[in-house]
């Protein structure tokens, strides 16, 4: 059987702490950990924009990793400057000047690499005809696919797509350009894919829907490989203080599609009707628009009930889940919804918007509400907060069904099966 090359470029190329523990970067490192421990012949690679080549790396796993799970084992100082390799539409001035900008960026990337990466630490690898699995963002994948096309390198490419949300044109400060770039990047990824993986059944239907509309190119087979519920326990210092009063937890909840507005309106409804209002802890990256929303005058009556927890590590996040009254995830749309699965994994009740991906993750273990109806959410919060019998019944149901929840090992097994149908599960 041919080896499987697993792409860790997302972790190498991503910038900032906010990507370390959440979303796509989290998925890349968790599956990388399980693949490294599997009996399959899996090797690990990163793409270097300094060389327009892939290099094989020896990732750090478990306690040896800086994340406590998996990282590509390349010094942070080598992280390249990233600029796009292609654009959706031509632009005369940009296209005339861009080669000079690319050359300048490449020189900077090469200097960083030469200073930071010891000789012999990695080795260049030719991926022509090799099985390559990538769970990164399409914009990262499209860059190296364009670079490899210029070198006539064609891989057997198996990318996982996480969502098609930007094609719905939800409100976004740069949505028009963002959506065009997103569609462009996904087009490149799909055109190079031997088979597509999808992080949920919902995302599979989304891919097929937009391909049928012509917003995406013709697609190969799409195999759902749903993400898990598991929240891995890691050996990291806990860096948060847990409130002594009951609190709701929101992970990555912000304004717009993530629908923080619904939670705030529900809390105001409880306040205005004389019902007790639990605290709300918002864990995730710093977002100016979230802070601006919380500083609005109408939020003043409940502002002292809201606390921001910036970029908690995985151990801290786990404790936040465990001690929470309930998770609240009010999104209008998700591709999967990792926080919902993670809350259920540690036995914490979850209040989730009644949208397809979240219902797929939560099954009959979560409590659902209309994301456009803050009053419905307020009623659920009130029940969780003030009805001990109802709360314990929900919590007991979650705990009794924990054995049925999905793990990262399951995801790795499904990926191996998708790229090599005759292989055994991990």
Explained architecture:
The protein is an alpha/beta fold and 426 residues long. The protein folds into two domains: 4-228 and 408-419, 3-Layer(aba) Sandwich (Rossmann fold), CATH 3.40.50; 247-404, Glycogen Phosphorylase B (Rossmann fold, 3-Layer(aba) Sandwich). The protein has helices at 9-13, 23-37, 92-116, 138-150, 175-192, 201-212, 260-272, 288-294, 314-323, 338-345, 356-362, 374-386, 388-400, 408-419, and strands at 4-7, 42-48, 53-57, 60-61, 70-71, 123-125, 131-134, 156-161, 196-198, 222-224, 247-251, 279-284, 306-310, 326-329, 350-353, 367-369. Strands 6-3-2-1-7-8-9-10 form an eight-stranded mixed beta sheet, sandwiched between helices. Strands 13-12-11-14-15-16 form a six-stranded parallel beta sheet, sandwiched between helices. Helix 4 crosses helix 5. 44% of the residues are buried. Mean pLDDT is 93; it is low at 15-19.
Give me the CATH architecture of the largest domain, please: 3-Layer(aba) Sandwich
pLDDT averaged residue by residue:
93
* Helicity, as a percent range: 40-55%
Shape: globular
Number of strands: 16
Our count of helices gives 14
Question: Spans of 5+ residues with little confidence (pLDDT < 50)?
Answer: 15-19
> How many angstroms separate the termini?
15 Å
Q: What is the CATH class name of the largest domain?
A: Alpha Beta
Give the strand line-up of the largest sheet.
6-3-2-1-7-8-9-10
Percent strand equals 15-25%
Number of domains: 2
Biggest sheet architecture: 8 strands, mixed
In angstroms, what is the radius of gyration?
22 Å
Structural class: alpha/beta
Tell me the series of helices and strands, N- to C-terminal.
EHHEEEEHEEHEHEHEEHEHEHEHEHEHHH
- CATH topology title of the largest domain: Rossmann fold
């Amino acid at each position: 059987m041919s080896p499987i090359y697993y792409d860790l470029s997302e972790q190498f190329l991503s910038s900032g702490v906010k990507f370390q523990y959440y979303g796509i970067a989290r998925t890349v490192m968790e599956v990388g950990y399980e693949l490294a421990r599997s009996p399959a012949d899996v090797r690990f690679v990163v793409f270097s924009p300094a060389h327009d080549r892939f290099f094989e790396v020896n990732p750090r796993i478990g306690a040896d990793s800086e994340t406590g799970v998996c990282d590509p084992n390349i010094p942070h100082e080598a992280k390249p400057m990233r600029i796009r390799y292609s654009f959706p539409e031509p632009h005369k001035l940009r296209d005339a000047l861009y080669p000079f900008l690319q050359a300048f960026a490449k020189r900077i990337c090469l200097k960083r690499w030469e200073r930071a990466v010891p000789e012999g630490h990695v080795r260049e690898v030719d991926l022509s005809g090799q099985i390559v699995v990538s769970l990164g963002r399409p914009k990262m994948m499209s860059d190296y696919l364009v670079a490899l096309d210029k070198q006539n390198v064609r891989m057997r490419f198996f990318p996982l797509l996480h969502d098609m949300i930007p094609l719905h044109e939800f409100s976004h400060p740069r949505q028009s350009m963002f959506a065009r770039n997103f569609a462009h990047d996904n087009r490149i990824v799909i055109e190079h894919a031997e088979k597509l993986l999808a992080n949920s059944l919902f995302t599979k239907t989304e891919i097929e829907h937009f391909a049928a509309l012509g917003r995406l190119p013709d697609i190969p087979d799409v195999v759902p490989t749903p993400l898990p519920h598991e929240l891995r326990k890691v050996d990291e210092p806990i860096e948060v203080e847990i409130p002594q009063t009951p609190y709701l937890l929101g992970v990555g909840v912000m304004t717009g599609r993530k629908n923080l507005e619904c939670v705030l309106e529900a809390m105001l409804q409880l306040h205005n009707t004389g019902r007790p209002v639990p605290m709300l802890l918002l864990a995730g990256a710093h977002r100016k628009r979230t802070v601006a929303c919380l500083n609005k005058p109408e939020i003043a009556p409940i502002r002292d009930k809201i606390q921001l927890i910036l970029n908690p590590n995985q151990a801290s996040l786990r404790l936040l889940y465990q001690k929470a009254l309930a998770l609240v995830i009010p999104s209008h749309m998700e591709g999967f919804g990792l926080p919902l699965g993670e809350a259920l994994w540690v036995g914490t009740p979850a209040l989730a918007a009644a949208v397809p991906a979240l219902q797929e993750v939560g099954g009959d273990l979560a409590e659902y509400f209309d994301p456009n109806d803050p009053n419905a959410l307020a009623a659920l919060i009130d029940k969780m907060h003030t009805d001990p019998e109802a709360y314990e019944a929900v919590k007991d149901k979650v705990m009794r069904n924990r054995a049925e929840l999905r793990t990262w090992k399951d995801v790795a097994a499904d990926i191996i099966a998708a790229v090599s149908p005759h292989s055994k599960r991990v």
